[in-house]
Amino acid sequence: MRGLLSFLLVAVMAVPGFSEYKVTGGDDGPACSAEVEPLGRSVMECIYSHKIYDPKKDESRESFYILEIGRDASRYSNYRQYKVDSVIVGVYNNKPMTFNEYRKISNSVGGSMRGSLDDIVKRLGDGSMLVHDKVFIDYYVYADSINDLHWTLLPETAEVCGYECHCATADFRGRSWKAWYSMDIPQDNGPWKFGNLPGLILKVEDADSEHVFEAIAVRNSDREFGYDLRSFFKTSREKFNKMLQEYKDYPGDFMSGMPAAPMKADGSYDKPVRSLFYNAIEKE
Question: Which residues pair with 88 in a beta bridge?
């Protein structure tokens, strides 16, 4: 196994989509782990809060991500899973562990796993990136680039996470964005797909404040990092966004016929019609 081990919760009912990983012997059976594609050693980490507002539901949610920056590549991923990995490496030092042991560690750092995947790998030399994400139980990957971001630099300044930041604005795929970047951190990077500025982006929000990314911690780092290798379906950004929107709007169409959907007396399955919390970052 290469790189940093990222142990995964493998009970299919607890985490949809991990059917390729099996547990034998119940809770005392071994917890399997995914192979990792190494990206090198990180030199810096930045933790971001991502606040999302869904106007259809009039509901807001907050999640946390970590940007790991190396010399040649970076990875933006779920911060909770990063913490789970860190505990496992520190406590077990890559020794075998049971599913029950994994579950206890997973719960100790913030509740049960939700089976989500939002993993963006940027190649720092040419601005290219690979986006790994999922729709229901299927994993997808598509190529993108930060070179499509064209900013207008403004004279405004503000302090974010203890750093003096400069302002920039851009229209990007259906939204107008305002970013705050620090030239004291000369990294062409930022949360999600953002970058293409002469300093690390510490805060960025759209004009409607429906998506707000803000750094809550910046620290030096020196650890191996990488991303989990799975069986990804290759697709395009446009096709993936269309599939994800359809799933969020009509989850019953994806659930119908699945064992997780409740069975009716005639043997057919109910299709939940309630849409899921969602507000697409990209509108086009």
Answer: none
Of 83, 111, 113, the C-alpha closest to 21 is 113
DSSP one-letter code for 274: P
Tokens found for residue 97:
């562990």
Rounded CA-CA distance 16/115 in Å is 6
Dist. CA 247–CA 17, nearest whole Å: 15
DSSP codes of every residue in 56-103: TTTEEEEEEEEEEEESSEEEEEEHHHHHHHHHHHHHHTT---BHHHHH
pLDDT of residue 51: 97
Report, as an integer, the average pLDDT of 14-26: 35
The CA angle 81-85-87, to the nearest 5 degrees, is 115
Vertex 238 angle, CA 261 and 251, to 5°:
15
Determine the 3-state secondary structure of 176 from DSSP: strand
- Give the span between the Cα atoms of 68 and 73, in whole angstroms: 9
Q: Tens digits of per-residue pLDDT, 116-152? A: 578 999 999 898 999 999 998 899 999 999 999 999 9
- What distance in Å separates the CA atoms of residue 204 and residue 168, rounded to the nearest whole number? 9
Burial class (CB in 10 A: 0-12, 13-18, 19+), 25: exposed
